[in-house]
């Protein structure tokens, strides 16, 4: 594919807000029930292609939202269930639109190199005129640089990765064990004091006996 000012201008005009649209899908979509023929991993460098963004109509999204809100107001769904239900409805609509778009490209000179259906993201290659016609005919909502597809793919992989388990907290020391240790220290200290007192008494006794013996020796000499 060749790059010209017209194509770059179209990418600039059509890209406003579209990147956020792709990234926002990664947090609300999980696995999809529908299937696309295109793989998620491209066989080419994404920079060699163009990222096309497709999405359901606003009317379809609004209708799904109103249906879920009605179920919630009737008490059929609580708040959490309503959020999950809306996510599933949106996922179905995005995938349905992606499958429809993939089928429409079968008879054109546009090649789908990769696709993330639940995000409405396609990596395309083809002539500049053919790609621009997709935008003019409202077949796609935006055309972005090919690198945007790679970022969307990475965001999807990160969203689907299992979170790392949090480390278990270290056990706190047992207070009873600390009390027992303190008691043992006190007992050992008392035992040492008793031994020291006994040693002092013995020393005094020995000292007294020695003095009496010396006095007796002196009297005999006299």
Estimate the mean pLDDT confidence: 74
Count of DSSP strands: 4
**Spans of 5+ residues with little confidence (pLDDT < 50)?**
1-20, 23-33
Strand order of the largest sheet: 2-3-1-4
- First CA to last CA: what distance? 134 Å
Radius of gyration computed on alpha carbons: 42 Å
What's the SSE pattern? HHEHHEEHEHH
- Approximate helicity band: 55-70%
Structural class: alpha+beta
* Count of separate DSSP helical elements: 7
Largest sheet: 4 strands, antiparallel
Q: Proportion of β residues?
A: 5-15%
Explain how this protein is built.
The protein has 222 residues and is of the alpha+beta class. The protein is built from seven helices and four strands. Strands 2-3-1-4 form a four-stranded antiparallel β-sheet, with helices on both faces. β2 and β3 (121-125) form a beta hairpin. α3 packs antiparallel against α4 (79-104). The chain is flat, with a radius of gyration of 42 Å. It starts with a helix and ends with a helix.
